[in-house]
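anyone seen this seq b4? input:
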Amino acid sequence: MRKPASFYFFKTKPIILENRYEHWRGVADLLCFTTHERLRVEWMVFYYTAGKESAALTAQHFGISRKTFYKWSKRFRDSKYDAHSLADRPRTPHRKRHWQVTLIQEERIRRLRKRYLYYGKKKLKVIYEREYSEEISTWKIERVVRRYKLLTRIRRRRLPGREPEFVRNQRRG
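predicted toks r here
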């Protein structure tokens, strides 16, 4: 089998592999790590070089607790020394609850609320179940009321002959 012409005429440059610490820093640059994430990379570099694999020395040098260092060190080792593991993980939940009220239920609740404006969610639930013979939770009713801003402000009547508290307090002082 013949070799290609480039094999004879062009010398290949030797591939110089950077040490693993520079590689970790390079990965952090490529992934646009935040300052906190880059600092974690530096913890690991220090731990394996100047720290002589001493967690206490590394934690003391960076002013962190050993527990924090051990947490990140374990995550780093479990990922087989992959710098990606030092990035923050998303804090959003894996599953998010979805709106469980159907459009028909929504419309029925809106109509009931407009008809019985001063009734609360418990009374509306009883009326809903009586009229439509369908089970519904008070939470669904509350969500629809909030979504469409069908809230009412309850006005408290003052008893005759009684002054508000702040007026009484001003007269004493």
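Residues 126 and 136 are 9 Å apart (CA to CA). DSSP finds nine helices and no strands in the chain. kinda curious what u guys think
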